[in-house]
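Mods, move this if it's the wrong board.
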Amino acid sequence: MTVVDTPRVSHESVDVVLRLLEANARRDWDAVFEIYAPDIEWEDNAGLWGDWGFPRGREELRDAWRRWFEVLGDVNWQIQGDLVDIGDDVVATYDVHGRGRGSGVEVDQLLTLVWTVRDGRIARVRAFRDRDEALEAVGIRDGSG
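Not the wrong board. Structure tokens:
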């Protein structure tokens, strides 16, 4: 994985996102939720999380994740391609793989997240199915910076 710098680069934001991803890989949920700002906002523009809505705050987000993991098991996230560092925003594309707990149906979905960092914590996450759409949301049209 490499980091693509843009004119608004801020490696601090990338460092925060990488800390969150490391905690997530360890399944250290206390550490994960400590990295989120108390007033975290999560916007699921991708529809991957079903009906969890747009959680606001750590408790709503924790409840949304809990519901999601009740439905989907054996979840793994693998970063695909480069992280794009855009000042307070970091764009990352993931391959999300899991299996329905009741149905056994496999889910394999590409997903691009825009992580917004404020005061050393993740304050906002926007999820998109399309990387170009996510890049456009942060003011980059084609991923070339």
